[in-house]
Amino acid sequence: MYSKQIVKNCANASFIRKMFEKGLELAKQYGPENVYDFSIGNPFAEPPVDLRERMKELVDQPGVHRYMPNAGFPDVREKVAAYYSARSEKPIPASHIVMTTGAAGALNVLFKAILNPGERIVTFAPYFVEYGFYAQNVGAHLDTVETESTDFLPNIEGLRQAIKPDTRILLLNSPNNPTGRIYSRQDLEAVAGVLREKSAEFGQPIFLVSDEPYATITYDGHQVPNVLDLYEHAIVVNSFSKSLGLAGERIGYIAVGADVPEVETLMDALIFCNRTLGFNNAPALAQKVVAEYLDVLPDVADYQAKRDLLYKELTALGFETNLPEGAFYFFMKVPANFESSVEFANYVADKHQILVVPGSGFGCEGYVRLSYCVKMEVVERSLKAWQALAAELGLKK
User: Mean of the per-residue pLDDT values for the chain?
Assistant: First the structure.
C-alpha cells in the first residue's frame, strides 16, 4: 500500500531518535535529574541575544516575507560569498552560493543535481547516519570506506579501491560526526590526489562534497582546512544549526568552488532542485539574520570544558575513547563485556540511565557515540553513574 523502501527505512530508523525517545520515558520513570542524555546533538544554548533581537527587528522589514529568487536573497548570497572569499585563495562569486534549508536540504539538493539513478557516493565510516537515506532519495548507492585503525583518519588506499566508474561524489564530514576528528590539510591533499587520479581514469570529474556544520567548533588550535583551495571539483555544505544554535530555523547554504567545470550548468541545476524538491528557498527571516552573523563563533570554551572533564573521567575509569578535535562527540569503544553496540547502549540506558547511540548506526560497530552538547551539570551528575558502570564491568580504575 505504501512505499516498501520507506516502510523498511522507518523500521530501521535512526538510533539517535530512538535513544532520545527512550530518554523521555526514563525521565518520567526516574526523574529528569537522574537521566544522563548524551544521545542527540541538539545545542542547548540559545542563539546570541543580539541575534534574537535583530530577528525581531527583521520581522517588520518590508519585503522580507515575500517570494525571493530560489537561490536566496541576492544580498545574503553576496555576504556569504564575501565570507568565503576572505578565507579562500580564489574569490567565490555570489553566483556560486545557494541558500538552503539547512545542511540536510543542501545535500539532498546537491545529490539530485549531480547524480543519475544508480550512480555512487563514497564516504568514510563512521559517518552521519542519514547519508544513506539521502542517497536513496535520488536512487544512488552509498559506498563506505573504513577509516584507519582507531584514529578515524582517511584510508587513502581504501578510498582508491572503493571508487568505481560510476562514483560521482566523495562525501566528507570534518569535524566528523560521530568521532570529532578533523581531517588535516595533508589528509585532504592525499584525498584530492586520489580523486584526480580516478577522475582522469574514468573520464569524468568526481566531486568532493564537504559537509561542515561543525567547522567553527574546534579545540586546541585545530582548524578546518578550506577544501575549495585544495581540489578543483570541491563543494562545501554548511549550516548554522550548531554554530549559532539555530537548528530549528533550518538554514544553511551550498558554496561551489571557483574552479568547478561547467559551473553555470551546475548552479542552474542546484537552483532548479532547490525549487522542485519542495524546499523552494531557504527561510527568508533566517537568511537575513545569519547574513549579519557569519563571523560569530560559538562558545567553544564551554564545549571544551565538558570535553576535558568527560575525557579525564572516562579514561581514568578504564573506558577507551578518542579526544575530539572538533564538534561535540566522543566515539567510545564498547567494553569487551558486550557483543554489540546496541546491546551496550540498551544496557547502560536500562541499568544506569545513561543514553548513548550505538555505533552500528554510523556504519562502525564496536563503538557508541556520546554527545556532550548538554549542560555541565548533566556531565557532572553523570559521573557517579559512569563510576558505577565501570565498577560493575570490572574496568580498570
Answer: 93
Residue 326's pLDDT is 97
Contact by Cβ (8 Å): 207, 169: yes
Q: Which residues of the chain have pLDDT under 70?
A: 7, 9-16, 396-397
Q: What are phi and psi of 70, to 5 degrees?
A: -65, -20
Can you give the three-state secondary structure of the chain, one letter per residue?
Answer: CCCHHHHHHHHCCCHHHHHHHHHHHHHHHHCHHHCEECCCCCCCCCCCHHHHHHHHHHHCCCCCCCCCCCCCCHHHHHHHHHHHHCCCCCCCCHHHEEEECHHHHHHHHHHHHHCCCCCEEEEEECCCCCHHHHHHHCCCEEEEEECECCCCECCHHHHHHHCCCCEEEEEEECCCCCCCCCCCHHHHHHHHHHHHHHHHHHCCCCEEEEECCCCCCECCCCCCCCHHHCCCCEEEEEECCCCCCCHHHCCEEEEECCCCCCHHHHHHHHHHHHHHCCCCCCCHHHHHHHCCCCCCCCCHHHHHHHHHHHHHHHHHHCCCECCCCECCEEEEECCCCCCCHHHHHHHHHHHHCEECEEHHHHCCCCEEEEECCCCHHHHHHHHHHHHHHHHHHCCCC
pLDDT given for residue 23 in this prediction: 76
Is residue 166 within 8 Å of residue 205, measured between CB atoms? no
Q: What is the phi/psi pair of residue 212, to 5°?
A: -125, 45
CB 377 within 8 A of CB 42: no
- Rounded distance between C-alpha atoms, residue 343 and residue 365, angstroms: 11
What is the predicted pLDDT for the residue at 46? Answer: 87
CA 369 vs CA 141, 233, 256, 313, 381: distances in Å: 25, 32, 31, 16, 19
What is the rounded CA–CA span in Å between residue 169 and residue 233? 10
Q: Do residues 172 and 124 make contact, with C-beta atoms less than 8 angstroms apart? A: yes
Give the separation between CA 199 and CA 349, rounded to whole angstroms.
47
Residue 260, phi then psi, degrees to nearest 5: -60, 130
Model confidence, pTM: 0.94
How many other CB atoms are there within 10 angstroms of residue 86's CB atom?
11
The per-residue pLDDT for 7 is 66
Rounded distance between C-alpha atoms, residue 135 and residue 274, angstroms: 16
